[in-house]
Hints:
Number of domains: 1
Number of helices: 14
Structural class: mainly alpha
Distance between the termini: 16 Å
Order of helices and strands: HHHHHHHHHHHHHHEE
Largest sheet: 2 strands, antiparallel
Number of strands: 2
Amino acid sequence: MPLNNHAFHAETASVDDAPPPRTDSSPPEGAGAWYVRLLRELAIHDWMVLGYLIVLTAAVGLSSASPEQDRCLGHVTSMLAFCLAVLALTRGGLLKGGVVAPLLYRLAVYGTVQISYFELRELLPVVNPRSLDAQLSYIDERILHFEPSLFLDRFVTPAVTEWFAFFYFGYFALLAVHVLPMVFFSRRMRLTAEFAFGMIMVYATAHTVYMLVPGYGPVRYLADRYQHPLPPGFWLDAVLNAVQSGGAQKDIFPSLHTAGPMFLALFSFRHRDKVPFKYTWPFVAFFSANIIIATMFLRWHYLIDVLAGMTLSTTGFFLAGVISRREVDYREQNGLQAAWLPFVLRFRVAPKQDGHRGSTARS
């Protein structure tokens, strides 16, 4: 019995339903012509991810020599090489259709951006050992005239702390329930193109800016000004363990705990006429608002970090709607590959014999 869910489904098709193969999808004769075809097939978000990985590689490569720099350089060059190889195979027409090509493509283009976050823990001190907490705090207190974490200090209780710690930790679940279905299982390619473009832009931009504006946040810089320590609890302990084990430590400007959830809320609201967003957008908006407040209540971010995250998410939201639509239209009009290669599962049905020679029964 088919599920009636048009937003989150794997793209499946029989042999008869599969689109006819393009005659121009195979690499033309001659390496030069193939390179031209490859460059023409690359989507805007492909270039964006390649540019991001090149920036990471160059930033690490130009840093002072050290064992940490060697390790980081090995990691970022591996991600860049993997992305280049997969793009050559998929966009170059050497690996087509089925499941493997679309899966590798998503891992190389979207996956590298997300996975690169875990490299920032060692990469940021290598690229920029400074801390700009003093400057960020100055902007809050002297220009914006408001430091949220100091203001919220008066409301610290075990219950309130656990409330916001729950939502802060829930950021990872909120990402997962959107990214996995939309990027890996959605059959609506226009929706996938818009979602993925916006998320890639938001996260790649934030990771890049972290190298320019590193800082540890109010939790360290303003530690001696808080009157109430955050009381331990199940969710706060979970947050602290996650930050300690996997956090980048100096990733505060812009706040991705603001930019990511806010983009998801805006995206869900824009598509509230579609399933499942018509049902989920109020919950996503509520969850996102609490995550944003939690970033300040738990003393991870300055106000300027949050404002920068809001600006980034809003910019990504509007650009994703315009650029992805034009990208999809351009590729359809010019006979290019889909912006995001669809999964195509092929099934061969053997005819059933009805007991009479030369006749078959329909299955």
